[in-house]
Amino acid sequence: xxxxxxxxxLKHPSEAAALGxxxxxxxxxxxxxxxxxxxxxxxxxxIQIMAVDPLxxxxxxxxxxxxTKDQKNQQLRDSVRSLHLLTRQAFFTNQTQQRVTGxxxxxxxxxxxxxxxxxxxxxxxxxxxxxxxPREGGSAERSAGRWAVAAGAGLVVLATLLMxxxxxxxxxxxAKPASAEATSxxxxxxxxxxxxxxxxxxxxxxxxxxxxxxxxxxxTPPPAPAKVEPLPLHAWPSFRGxxxxxxxxxxxxxxxxxxxxxxxxAWKVTIPKVGTNSPIVWGDRVFVAGADDQTRDVYAYDAKTxxxxxxxxxxxxSGTLPKIMDxxxxxxxxxxxDGERVYAVFATGDIVAWNMDGTKAWGRHLGVFKNxxxxxxxxxxxxxxxxxxxxxxxxxxxxxxDGKSGKTLFDxxxxxxxxxxxxxxxxxxxxxxxAILSAKPFVISHDPATGKILWQVECMDGEIAPSAAxxxxxxxxxxxxxxxxxxxxxxxxxxxxxxxxxxxxxxxxVATEKYVLMxxxxxxxxxxxxxxxxxxxxxxxxxxxxxxxxxxxxRVYLMDKKGVTLVFKLxxxxxxxxxxxxxxxxxxxxxxxxxxIYFRSEKNLYCIGKD
Length: 611
What we know:
Blueprint: H1 5-10, H2 15-51, H3 58-69, H4 74-125, H5 139-166, H6 204-207, H7 215-219, E1 265-270, E2 280-282, E3 285-291, E4 296-302, E5 308-314, E6 336-337, E7 341-345, E8 350-355, E9 360-365, E10 380-382, E11 385-392, E12 395-402, E13 408-414, E14 425-428, E15 433-438, E16 442-446, E17 453-458, E18 469-471, E19 474-478, E20 484-488, E21 494-499, E22 510-511, E23 515-519, E24 524-529, E25 535-540, E26 550-552, E27 555-559, E28 564-569, E29 576-581, E30 591-593, E31 596-600, E32 604-608
Antiparallel strand pairs: 1-32, 2-3, 3-4, 4-5, 6-7, 7-8, 8-9, 10-11, 11-12, 12-13, 14-15, 15-16, 16-17, 18-19, 19-20, 20-21, 22-23, 23-24, 24-25, 26-27, 27-28, 28-29, 30-31, 31-32
């Protein structure tokens, strides 16, 4: 039977298009309602956490006040500890749930936009009854399209504002390193700025993990470690001491002090300019760095008297002054010394060396650090070399400079993803010296003499700030967003164990042959069995930790964010030995030398321990 022209015009030419339009419309409704519910959930959760702050619970405060009146009430102390732990867990659980809901909201908005766009496009393809204007280009359909785009854009803006509003938890995380901006340089040049350049592609062996060294490297025994004279007992030459490992070679250290009262304080001096780097010590000199918009300075103090001996200042070597976040500085990275020179790297991308008498030895520009917070990886010295971990968004590099001249001895590309704020360590893993660097997604061992990659394991995630630790021939890592784990080094490295609770996001772990200790920003201290990874004990502290724990003999020294140093026994049970207030806020890791401890606060440098 013949079909009339009118019937032809009324019949849908594509059943698939019609069905697709209906499906897209249904998906748009569902995703729109889902996004609205998620949005309301986020708002209600934020209102609730603002109205009832679990970290400042009035019941908890009242119980703490009662303790001061009844200090012998152990049951009350246990109740306070339990309630404090529950409130902290509730707070961080709430923050995690809000972030997950926020991500789901963004996903729902994306689906809504896609489905609305699909629905409008399919609708425009539908036939129009005879006598009506075609839909293509019609004002009604254009209006519907504009409405969909405007509504979707509004939801995206609202979701983004909510994510920004909810992102920072209402607690003090002010010790993040400074931020740098603009362009970056992946490959350093001597004395000249370089253009941003991504690292060259590596062989497949480097991009997978765990991966042995390249075949030609495995056939040749690793180079013998350079002969290094043992450090004198009065040396604390870098961040976390010898090798950057967090263990004091001379274990003798003061047990008690009070910075505000002056008890057991040998001296206290004001540092001219602000900085967030930790002190280092060599012989009778203590070094710290400070900076402002004009100059970046290194200060040398007499270790016995606190007298300022000299100041080494430098302006910009090249490039421009980067912007930094509030509460951070241009000098977040800790200095390093080899006893002949003192080396400093700044947020400007400049690295400078001073002789021990304060004269400038050399300076050069490594390139602009391009990452979220700015460069804070501390320097390390080894066998006449200055070691630089240069991991940022333009690529990763491990750089070795000649200590005398600043000339590049090696520049090893690293298969990293984004930035790392961890610092390198150099340790003897049993058969050789190895430089261990941590970044997403790998922990990588380099030859500290040549920079070559010895082995790597894919195990890191999150924002990498804690450095590695080593003891008993093993390497230990711990980072929030990943895990605490032990690695057996070698051509075919193995992960021996993992632990996934109360992980640090700033403070580095410290290890002995028997114990691994971690200190979290939330205030939890955890002791693990170095052989098995099983928890031996955990202890909650009222304040969180940014400074890294230091092992000195059979004691552990750990300073909280208020400048109170907790001293406890290194053992199978938690045994507190002392609580020592500095009298002001401090977040830098202390230095240990010849029976004294050197602390840096926001404004002052302290020497603890009288002769």
